[in-house]
Design goal:
208 residues; 8 helices; alpha/beta; 23% strand; eight-stranded mixed sheet; single chain
């Protein structure tokens, strides 16, 4: 990490951070953010640029970003400070352990943008978008809340589509792949994918 990232982590984690454990106590989102507002869960926030941009343009909702890599967490904390974002909190650890600690029906949206595709067949069981995980994520959404996934890996996109469509509690907003929504920022990762000629697939489903 850069010196600036180390400094941001040291100073800002106590105010904005949440450490995830496999026995995490139930999370009180109103207490975590200091207010009651719709909450968006960002699964795998990477370096945090997209999260910070969305939170900046959407001040009436709170953004809970979960990531495992410390440099990305530190970078997002720095963005939170520089932009004065009171509506962002950052969690470190396993996203599914965090979701299990959230109340049912507590999230306005879940974003899963460019998750690891685990391309080898023997690693598919590690993918975040699979039936049991989708059922868990859906249970934490409010009725009408959205589960929005994006990937540049065509095979994973088709697997996502089949899994989301098969969930009995989700409805497909667009009847297939969605047009790229304006609210999802174009990240450096996505630009690299497009430059390499890989199309990007968006899938948006809502909880019935």
């Amino acid at each position: 990490m850069s010196d600036r990232q180390v400094d941001a982590l040291d100073r800002l984690w106590p105010a904005y951070g949440l450490t995830i454990t496999d026995d995490l106590a139930p999370v009180d989102l109103a207490a975590l953010f200091g207010r009651r507002a719709p909450v968006v869960l960002e699964v795998g926030s990477g370096m945090g640029d997209a999260t910070a941009e969305m939170a900046t343009g959407d001040p009436d909702r709170d953004y809970l970003a979960v990531e495992v890599h410390t440099p990305g967490i530190a970078n997002l904390l720095g963005l939170v400070e520089r932009r004065g974002l009171g509506n962002v909190r950052v969690a470190q650890g396993d996203a599914l352990d965090l979701v299990r600690a959230l109340p049912e029906g507590s999230l306005d949206a879940v974003h899963v943008f460019f998750p690891d595709p685990w391309p080898k067949s023997r690693h598919h069981k590690r993918r975040i978008i699979q039936p049991a995980h989708v059922a868990l994520l859906r249970s934490r959404l409010v009725p009408g809340g959205t589960l929005h996934c994006a990937t540049d890996w065509a095979e994973y996109a088709e697997s996502m589509r089949e899994t989301l469509t098969a969930d009995p509690g989700l409805a497909d907003v667009h009847g297939g792949y969605a047009p790229r929504p304006a609210h999802r920022p174009v990240t450096k990762f996505e630009r690299r994918a497009l430059t390499a000629g890989r199309p990007v697939f968006d899938l948006i489903h809502w909880r019935e």
